[in-house]
Specification:
heterodimer; A: mainly alpha; 6 helices; rod-shaped; B: mainly alpha
């Protein structure tokens, strides 16, 4: 190798990034968390929109269904509570079993 | 690809962050070096390297099991760099050359050589710069670089040959 080649190699390989860089790794993990959060918010908004649309479209049917038996109001209330918690993402974060089922479903739907 | 890397990818597909951390530790230097030479700006390069690893995490399933992890990561980095070329690629490369070189450690090369090579590297066409960086800096073979860049083998060989000549001329002019 000529002197010029060795100088070129040395110049090209000067100032490499560190072989281990915890700060860089943390920055990458932060980006992953941000992406997850963004995805979760978008999913929540989409589900909330669909749920609201379904309720609005079927408002009359729901009302007459409740009117037939007022105790059905409890079922609607329970549904509303579950929907609220689901939309906040709490059960998804709190229950590892739920995540497991979601993962299995995901693999089944998108092998 | 080593069995170790294969196991890492399998674990990442199952959502293991520990495996992902190991992958980042193992390959960040190669990806960052590639992007730093390609973009000519360390901050932008590190930013894009982080985006590269985010994409690797998100699309771990797209990795072919018979492939090489480092090549796969550099391929993602290359596609990101090419995609971003129009938006900010040339923005500040020349402006930051002096600052970054003067703030870095001297290493084995003289400051004049490093300045000349870095400036000359930025004058090369993008694909030629990428080929030169992959083969002369990151240590990939011509065929590996061709796979990463999605280019013909002959094209990559020609890019490396011409690029090396241009860089040698830049050093000679400084001498």
């Amino acid at each position: 190798m000529s002197d010029l080649d060795s100088r070129l190699t040395a110049a090209l390989n000067a100032d490499p990034p560190p072989s281990r860089d915890a700060r860089f790794r943390v920055e990458v993990l932060l980006r992953i968390e941000r992406a997850r959060f963004k995805q979760r918010v978008l999913m929540t908004l989409a589900v909330a929109f669909v749920a609201a649309a379904l309720v609005a479209v079927n408002a009359q049917a729901i009302e007459s269904w409740i009117a037939m038996d007022t105790s059905r109001l409890w079922i609607v209330a329970l549904g509303a509570v579950i929907a609220t918690f689901s939309l906040s993402g709490l059960p998804i974060e709190a229950l590892p079993g739920f995540r497991g089922v979601a993962r299995i479903l995901g693999r089944w739907l998108y092998p | 690809m080593s069995d170790d890397d294969r196991a890492l990818i399998a674990a990442i597909r199952d959502g293991s962050e520990t495996a992902f951390n190991t992958l980042v530790d193992r390959h960040q230097q190669a990806v960052r070096t590639f992007l730093r030479r390609l973009l000519g700006n360390d901050a932008d390069a590190d930013d894009m390297a982080q985006e590269t690893f985010l994409a690797a995490w998100t699309h771990a399933r797209s990795f072919r099991d018979d492939g090489d992890v480092r090549s796969w990561l550099c391929g993602i980095a290359w596609r990101k760099a090419r995609g971003a070329q129009r938006s900010w690629f040339r923005r500040s490369a020349r402006d930051t050359v002096h600052h970054e070189l003067s703030s870095g450690l001297a290493g084995g090369a003289s400051m004049e050589d490093r300045l000349a090579v870095k400036a000359a590297l930025q004058t090369l066409p993008l694909e030629q710069r990428a080929a030169v960086t992959l083969c002369l800096v990151c240590g990939f073979s011509h065929s590996e670089a061709a796979n990463i860049l999605g280019a013909a083998l002959g094209t990559v060989k020609s890019h490396v040959l011409r690029g090396r000549e241009r860089l040698r001329e830049a050093i000679e002019r400084k001498t």
